[in-house]
UniProtKB/TrEMBL annotation:
<dbReference type="GO" id="GO:0046872">
    <property type="term" value="F:metal ion binding"/>
</dbReference>
<comment type="similarity">
    <text>Belongs to the peptidase S45 family.</text>
</comment>
<keyword id="KW-0378">Hydrolase</keyword>
<dbReference type="InterPro" id="IPR043147">
    <property type="entry name" value="Penicillin_amidase_A-knob"/>
</dbReference>
<dbReference type="InterPro" id="IPR002692">
    <property type="entry name" value="S45"/>
</dbReference>
<dbReference type="InterPro" id="IPR029055">
    <property type="entry name" value="Ntn_hydrolases_N"/>
</dbReference>
<keyword id="KW-0106">Calcium</keyword>
<dbReference type="InterPro" id="IPR014395">
    <property type="entry name" value="Pen/GL7ACA/AHL_acylase"/>
</dbReference>
<keyword id="KW-0479">Metal-binding</keyword>
<feature type="active site" description="Nucleophile">
    <location>
        <position position="250"/>
    </location>
</feature>
<dbReference type="InterPro" id="IPR023343">
    <property type="entry name" value="Penicillin_amidase_dom1"/>
</dbReference>
<dbReference type="GO" id="GO:0016811">
    <property type="term" value="F:hydrolase activity, acting on carbon-nitrogen (but not peptide) bonds, in linear amides"/>
</dbReference>
<dbReference type="Pfam" id="PF01804">
    <property type="entry name" value="Penicil_amidase"/>
</dbReference>
<protein>
    <submittedName>
        <fullName>Penicillin amidase</fullName>
    </submittedName>
</protein>
<keyword id="KW-0865">Zymogen</keyword>
<dbReference type="InterPro" id="IPR043146">
    <property type="entry name" value="Penicillin_amidase_N_B-knob"/>
</dbReference>
<feature type="binding site">
    <location>
        <position position="325"/>
    </location>
    <ligand>
        <name>Ca(2+)</name>
    </ligand>
</feature>
Length: 798
């Protein structure tokens, strides 16, 4: 026995020693001195209580070299994943399972576009954003060459190559792709339009409905010469393999001084992005003479896409505009390498790209393009099932090189609202709602994108006829006619991925907009009072109420036999008086979502098939269509086409309710008092390596239950399913609040932590705070930062 105890003690201490050795080899260095060639003078980096780096440098070049090194130290593997998605090289690192993802992105043209953007970048003369970007890349590469690489590389047996400007452009391309909703929606809508009676589509919200909430425009007066502002007053299965999160939506609102207690602008932003570990945003505060900025950075991006100085703030949401069309081509019967175009024929072009694959020979992959863009049939199976004709992707993003780096640099360095607009108009894609507030009291919203002018007859949600020149876009809408609102009389601007109002040119621009439930809650709440503060506005940012869900539920309750609820009276009463809140101890949402799933499945799976039904509930179309689907009594969807009798709304609802009650009884017991919403919710932030067990136990970050919901302001969505366990898959990637009365007291929170390095104490330290709705400071006060710093790294000239 003594010998066994001794062996166990030895093994215990050996494990501890082994862990310490591994930690020493891979943990970030938050203290000490680092020599780096190319620095002009010394730069200091202070790490605050939550691991945010505060960089103090004598000039811009030194600041961005330091940022590049520190960013790589905390997030290099995330940078690796992002650049490999954008350059179509995932299979080289992760193996053959990711080959289809590489093929998809290469066909779509993102790597090709990154190369083109780099050619244009290199041809450009010397600019401050080029100098800063190159310094950032130099800092990243210095870490790759001399720093302690994260343990993921050891596990994969890989050493990273150096970072390049093409990698940065690839990352911008990946971000742009995640905003392209057409690929997730148009094939399904086209299939419905071709296979079902038109009455079926009338019950869906393929386009914005009159009852949806729209964002009002408020166009500024402009100088007639300069146009300057005159201020006065089965794509889903493929995407599940991605080792990087998708950008999905967002909220942002900016409140004018007339509605705040401080008499200054109050600014809020929470971008909605797929949950992952590490989370998307990396915070960094940079100070050098003439520049002071606190930014939220994407992995591999030198300039914060969201951020603030002491004088202005920038936020983002997804515009959700329709910037991608699919053209179904007709092949020349006498030449398979040509397509029909009016009375003529046009050539198709082919190129072969070599895709490296881990542990195997590289493969040659042929990409075919028509005059409208790349042919997508092979990489989008849903298209291949729909037609044997080639279908081309026409996508605004790949039509011109990106200027995202110039735009984001200029937004950070802007000194006026006009300079912000000049920067914003450089973004041709993806479509973004750029939100703005400043110390002078200005508030603004711009929807930035190059918006195509489509012929009046074109339905952009359905495949167009590639042989018909009349289906082609006619040109571009001038930026000044894009949706925007500058200092509106309402005293606030807000965007929540919903439809903007009619443009200045009279066009109601199509898109993949959400119905506006979130926007409506924001608008009603903000305009209800004029004394908003940084503290009382938090209640709105954390709100988990959707007003439409109780209306849906009451519509469902009206058409069923109340006797079905016998023995389940508590949940019936809860559903009848439900206000749409998703509190953790609520029982109404537990039944609502289960009942909703079975209702929709029994309505639609007979027409669509199981695969397309599952695709439907993963699109914006589902969110936008549910109210009309549920509340329309004479909808053709109610009838099950596989049975001889004609089912009614009552038949489907009662069958779905009985099944739901029985399943919930088995899941949580007979007493429906105990069917608390928190028992149904799982939140886990997945790491790319967490897809392989048991690595999920090591790298993934688990969090307490959250107020999961669909389309509440604090949006924490999940995929509707029959199991009754809902895995929250996305949500606010940060929650920012800034009162310009005291910018140094601004607050934020991240879903997991600042660092992506497993051995950092800041790997998951914010996860519980985030789940509980807490905030932490975004420090900019130099003495507070330096006096309370938890680490200090000094970069010195080599």
């Amino acid at each position: 026995m003594k010998k066994l105890i001794l062996i166990l003690i030895i093994l215990f201490f050996a494990a501890i020693a082994g862990y310490q050795i591994v930690k020493y080899q891979h943990a970030p260095n938050y203290n000490g001195t680092i020599e780096m060639a190319g620095l002009e003078s010394e730069a200091e980096v202070y790490f605050d209580e939550f691991g945010v780096p505060h960089i103090y440098a004598a000039n811009e070049t030194d600041a961005y070299m330091a940022l590049g090194y520190i960013h790589a130290q905390d997030r290099l593997f995330q940078m690796e994943m992002m650049r490999r998605v954008g350059t179509g090289t995932l299979a080289e690192l992760l193996g053959e399972d990711l080959l289809e993802v590489d093929k998809f992105f290469r066909t779509l043209g993102i790597p090709k576009h990154a190369d083109w953007s780099t050619v244009e970048w290199l041809a450009e003369g010397k600019t401050p954003w080029k100098t800063a970007t190159e310094a950032y890349i130099k800092g990243v590469n210095h870490f790759i060459q001399s720093g302690k690489l994260p343990i993921e590389y050891t596990i994969l047996g890989h050493k990273p190559r150096e970072f390049t400007i093409t990698d940065v452009h690839g990352i911008v391309g990946y971000m742009s792709f995640t905003f392209a909703m057409a690929m997730k929606t148009d094939p399904l809508v086209t299939k419905m339009a071709r296979n079902l009676h038109p009455d079926y589509l009338k019950v869906l919200s393929v386009h914005t409905l009159p009852e949806h909430h729209i964002i009002p425009n408020n166009y500024p007066k402009r100088d007639s010469d300069t146009k300057e502002i005159l201020l006065g007053s089965n794509i889903h299965a493929l995407l599940e393999k991605l080792p990087a999160p998708l950008l999905e939506g967002s909220n942002s609102w900016v409140i004018a001084p007339s509605r705040t207690a401080s008499g200054e602008v109050l600014f809020l932003n929470d971008t909605h992005i797929g949950f992952a570990q590490p989370s998307v945003w990396y915070e960094a505060h940079i100070e050098y003479p003439g520049f002071s900025y606190y930014g939220n950075h994407l992995a591999g991006m030198p300039f914060g896409l969201v951020g603030h100085s002491r004088k202005h703030s920038i936020g983002l949401t997804m515009f959700e505009n329709d910037d991608q069309d699919f053209f179904e081509e007709q092949i020349n019967p006498n030449n398979p390498n040509q397509t029909v175009y009016g009375d003529e024929f046009r050539p198709m072009y082919k190129r072969t790209e070599k895709i490296p694959v881990k542990g195997k020979e590289a493969i040659d992959f042929e990409i075919v393009e028509s005059i409208h863009g790349p042919i997508m049939n092979e990489v989008l199976p849903d298209i291949g099932k729909l037609t044997s004709n080639p279908v081309a992707s026409w996508w605004v993003y790949v039509l011109e090189p990106t200027k995202a780096l110039e735009a984001t640099w200029k937004m950070a360095h802007a000194s006026s609202i006009q300079e912000i607009e000049d920067a914003v108009r450089l973004i041709h894609a993806p479509g973004l709602n750029v939100m703005y507030g400043d110390k002078e009291g200005n508030i603004a919203w711009w929807a930035t994108a190059k918006l195509p002018i489509r012929p009046a007859h074109v339905n952009s949600k359905i495949f167009l006829d590639g042989s018909n020149p009349a289906d082609e876009p006619l040109g571009w809408i001038p930026f000044e006619e894009n949706p925007m609102s500058i200092n509106p009389p309402s005293g606030f601007v807000a965007s929540a991925n919903n439809q903007p109002d009619t443009l200045a040119n009279g066009i109601f621009f199509p898109g993949y907009y959400y119905p506006g439930d979130r926007w409506n809650r924001i608008a009603k709440t903000v305009t209800a009072r004029n004394d908003w503060t940084q503290q009382n506005i938090k209640e709105l940012q954390l709100e988990a109420i959707n007003e439409n869900h109780p209306i849906n539920a009451r519509s469902m309750m009206m058409d069923i036999d109340p006797g079905i609820f016998r023995g389940y009276e508590p949940v019936r009463a809860a559903l009848e008086k439900w206000d749409g809140n998703h509190d953790l101890n609520s029982i109404a949402p537990t039944l609502y979502y289960k009942w909703l799933y079975h209702t929709l499945h029994d309505m639609m799976a007979d027409e669509l098939g199981e695969d397309d039904f599952e695709n439907f509930i993963k699109t914006f179309l589902y969110i936008r269509s549910v109210p009309k689907l549920i509340r329309t009594n004479d909808s053709p969807w109610w009838d099950n086409v596989n049975t001889p009798q004609k089912e009614t709304k009552k038949d489907i609802l009662e069958k779905a309710l009985k099944k739901s009650l029985e399943e919930l009884k088995d899941q949580m017991g007979r007493d429906s008092h105990n069917w608390e919403w928190q028992k149904c919710i799982v939140l886990e932030h997945p790491h790319p390596l967490g897809a392989k067990k048991p690595l999920d136990k090591i790298f993934n970050v688990k969090a307490p239950p959250v107020t999961a919901n669909e389309e509440s302001v604090n949006k924490l969505p999940f995929t509707l399913n029959p199991n009754g366990i809902y895995r929250v898959n996305s949500g606010p990637a940060m929650r920012i609040i800034i009162d310009f009365a005291n910018v140094e007291a601004a607050e934020s929170i991240l879903p997991t932590g600042q660092s992506g390095n497993l051995f950092s104490s800041w790997y998951s330290d914010q996860a519980e705070m985030f789940a509980k709705g807490l905030y932490r400071p975004m420090l900019m006060n130099e003495s507070m930062i330096k006096n309370a710093a938890k680490g200090k790294v000094v970069f010195m000239k080599k």
